[in-house]
């Protein structure tokens, strides 16, 4: 696993395929500057723009798609210096331009352009311009909108975690994901930044390393990405909340870097913090929970509150989610339309693997049960996805009501070793794989009656390792 040293980071650029000399020169210069000034911004280092200019580069990252719906999308870009960003889209009604949006010093030269008025279930080529100059883009850069939720369709969502930086440079993995033609990719943590604590400059260096990956660029220019952090993106191994020796200002600074470098529909609460959000992916409500920012073992457990009603919804899981995210979650669940609910957590929902190490069941088992009870009452088919525990596993979660939830743990994007694939004496485990490179795929099919949800595990070489169909 990459430990974040300069030599380790440089080696990733040529780990799978040889990197161009100019890329190696650029990143070495970038990395040395951030090593010397680990709390700095990209715009603080004129050498970064100078090196980019030497090689004729006018942007450093993107385009990265995000928040694609039936009629809209968002396009993220990082530029070399402050600039105006415009996106040209070939629509069914002709060619349209969106923007300009300014990439500024305050946003560390990142910008997001919102695309609107697209038609559902369509594909729209696009081109990004920086100060009216077109940037180089991967072939096939296209916005693919989602079908209307009430129309029969098949929607594919790729799910995975634990790149641990190295997996971001794997061409076989990304080619296989693109071959599956997903409508979206969900990333559940331990992705691009590795154990950088409050050294936000080194977080930024890690994101620049991500954006130099050609396989990564080819994926995110064509498929929208929805991402949530886990411990290694956040501060470090098993760290959460405000770690000892750090401050709320440190936590908020790390959050700011995340917001600058991803393209989610929303980012928690401006006042309370966090990164959680809800969106709609075709026939599926997606809620991605922030299982790091708010953890507080000293918080009241809420054990005296029997159920999360309108008045006491902050008590869903005060120790793991915090009061503000708990209240938000209860409100969002009341608004979900179904028929499926896809709910993500960076760490595992169940406690079977590693005896629940660092998971919800260790921090706040009563809060997790209150959430389960609330999910029971929604009547939605609930699919839980998780990362962290290196491997790919599936579990049934029987409920006292006679219903079942399903947890799909998908944490093999980097292929790093972890706990055993199978849990002893666990009849509710459906499959298990470790020490290989693979990703999860959820296919939601409303063209059949009753509708079905199929979870597959795909090896990077294209072999289907497991399949579970619900419906």
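-> sequence recovered:
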């Amino acid at each position: 696993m990459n430990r974040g040293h300069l030599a380790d980071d440089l080696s990733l650029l040529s780990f799978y395929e040889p990197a161009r000399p100019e890329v190696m020169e650029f990143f070495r210069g970038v990395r040395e500057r951030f090593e010397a000034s680990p709390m700095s911004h990209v715009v603080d280092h004129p050498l970064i723009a100078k090196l980019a200019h030497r090689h004729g580069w006018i942007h450093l990252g993107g385009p990265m798609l995000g928040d694609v719906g039936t009629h809209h999308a968002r396009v993220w870009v990082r530029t070399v210096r402050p600039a105006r960003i415009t996106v040209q889209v070939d629509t069914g009604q002709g060619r349209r331009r969106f923007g300009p949006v300014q990439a500024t010093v305050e946003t560390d030269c990142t910008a997001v352009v919102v695309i609107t008025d697209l038609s559902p279930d369509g594909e729209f080529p696009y081109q990004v311009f920086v100060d009216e100059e077109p940037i180089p883009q991967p072939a096939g850069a296209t916005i693919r909108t989602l079908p209307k939720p009430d129309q029969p369709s098949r929607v594919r969502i790729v799910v995975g975690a634990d790149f641990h930086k190295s997996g971001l440079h794997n061409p076989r993995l990304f080619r296989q994901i693109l071959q599956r033609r997903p409508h979206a990719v969900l990333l559940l943590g331990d992705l691009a930044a590795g154990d950088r604590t409050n050294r936000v400059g080194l977080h930024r260096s890690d994101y620049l390393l991500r954006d130099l990956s050609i396989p990564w660029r080819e994926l995110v220019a064509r498929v929208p990405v929805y991402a949530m952090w886990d411990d290694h993106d956040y501060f470090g191994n098993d760290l959460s909340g405000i770690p000892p020796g750090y401050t709320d200002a440190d936590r908020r600074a790390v959050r700011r870097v995340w917001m600058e470098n991803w393209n989610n529909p929303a980012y928690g609460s401006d006042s309370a913090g966090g990164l959680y959000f809800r969106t709609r992916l075709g026939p599926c409500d997606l809620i991605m929970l922030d299982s790091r920012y708010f953890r507080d073992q000293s918080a009241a457990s809420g054990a005296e509150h029997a159920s999360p009603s309108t008045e006491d919804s902050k008590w869903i899981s005060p120790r793991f989610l915090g009061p503000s995210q708990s209240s938000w979650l209860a409100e969002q669940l009341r608004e979900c339309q179904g028929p499926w609910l896809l709910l993500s957590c960076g760490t595992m929902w169940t406690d079977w693997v590693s005896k629940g190490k660092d998971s919800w069941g260790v921090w706040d088992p009563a809060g997790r049960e209150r959430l389960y009870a609330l999910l029971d009452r929604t009547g939605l088919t609930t699919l839980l996805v998780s990362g962290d525990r290196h491997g790919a596993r599936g579990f049934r979660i029987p409920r006292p009501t006679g219903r079942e939830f399903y947890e799909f743990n998908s944490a093999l994007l980097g292929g790093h070793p972890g706990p055993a694939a199978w849990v002893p004496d666990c009849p509710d485990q459906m499959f298990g794989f470790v020490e290989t490179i693979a990703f999860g795929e959820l296919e939601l099919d409303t063209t059949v009656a009753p509708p079905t949800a199929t979870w597959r595990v795909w090896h990077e070489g294209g072999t289907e390792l497991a399949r579970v169909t619900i419906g």
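The mean pLDDT is 94.
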